[in-house]
């Protein structure tokens, strides 16, 4: 079966799916320089914490492959790589995967430099080390997501004693699937794994205002995968939870993360915090799915997370395809429609922070982390080397 791919990469060539055109049109842009990657990330043609990091890392690999670095020595080549990565770091501030990937790639390039080698050889060794490390990030992300899917499904199965006769319904927010990662997805990966084990009754996805990652991307991906799913607006979640009491509709909320800090506070798409409060009120488990590359042990609590604020037009206007009289979509045209008085003041934070006390489990590729008796998440279990 065909799979959805946000990123198509082979050495020297990077194609990125333009997610602004989804779900109506599948168009890949060639991204060959750091500037093109910066623009692709900033304009949200690619989005989702892991996918952003991968596009930045791989675009620079392509740029280097095409001979953009005119430096001659190993040291100069490292300085070039560092300056390009520092430039890319500013494309979007909240997701930590990008800066974690950048720190790792800088370290790899630095460690590969060998003063004993003649300059052209030293340069070649540094460039090769960079490229191989960027390519490893891509492969590792897919592997991580598959593991997150199985750990998350196993944790939920155990919590609810779910079985094919007693499957579980799950609500998710924003987009965390193949389109936000190298494939499979994080929170959506857990839903995919539950579904493949016949443990999923139904998936609910929120529209995710204002940018509609839920309706444009997650709903599309769920339909594409044939997973039983229903789209709701963000404001319908409370009503859905209330039904849960009577009809066992929702067993868990599963979301992704852009940054999980040392105490477990988690930045994710705006609206996540509200869902966590609702989940707690209704006795529903709240699960964060994130690779360890989304964990930031340098920041103590959510108060230290920089939240990106985006432009007013994302609230006051909407882009859609034109619907023909027969209900079909005209993929050749999009329309930008004003949905508010254009002079109104707007506050548009892209993310919010869910306090750790509202989170039941943080599922990583190395297993599910839960709080100890002291109410604290202990990331030593999954990140002993970084603790
Ligand atoms: O602003 P976006 O579309 O990049 O935000 C994406 C999200 O917030 C995702 O939920 C998050 O990055 C998790 S990605 C697996």
Element layout with pairings:
Elements: E1 7-10, E2 13-17, E3 28-30, H1 34-42, H2 49-65, H3 74-89, H4 96-112, H5 119-160, E4 168-172, H6 187-196, E5 200-206, H7 213-225, E6 229-232, H8 237-247, E7 252-255, E8 259-261, E9 266-269, H9 272-281, E10 285-289, E11 295-296, H10 313-316, E12 317-323, E13 329-338, E14 351-354, E15 361-364, E16 367-370
Helix pairs in contact: 1-2, 1-3, 2-4, 2-5, 3-4, 3-5, 4-5, 5-6
Bound molecules: 5-S-methyl-1-O-phosphono-5-thio-D-ribulose.
Poorly predicted tracts of residues: none
Ions, cofactors and other ligands present here are: 5-S-methyl-1-O-phosphono-5-thio-D-ribulose
Shape: globular
Class by SSE composition: alpha/beta
Order of strands in the sheet with most strands: 6-5-4-7-10-15-16
Q: Kindly report the average pLDDT value.
A: 93
Fraction in helix: 25-40%
The sequence of SSEs as H and E is: EEEHHHHHEHEHEHEEEHEEHEEEEE
Number of helical regions: 10
Strand content: 15-25%
Function: Catalyzes the interconversion of methylthioribose-1-phosphate (MTR-1-P) into methylthioribulose-1-phosphate (MTRu-1-P).
Enzyme class: isomerase
Family: Belongs to the eIF-2B alpha/beta/delta subunits family. MtnA subfamily.
Subcellular location: Cytoplasm; Nucleus
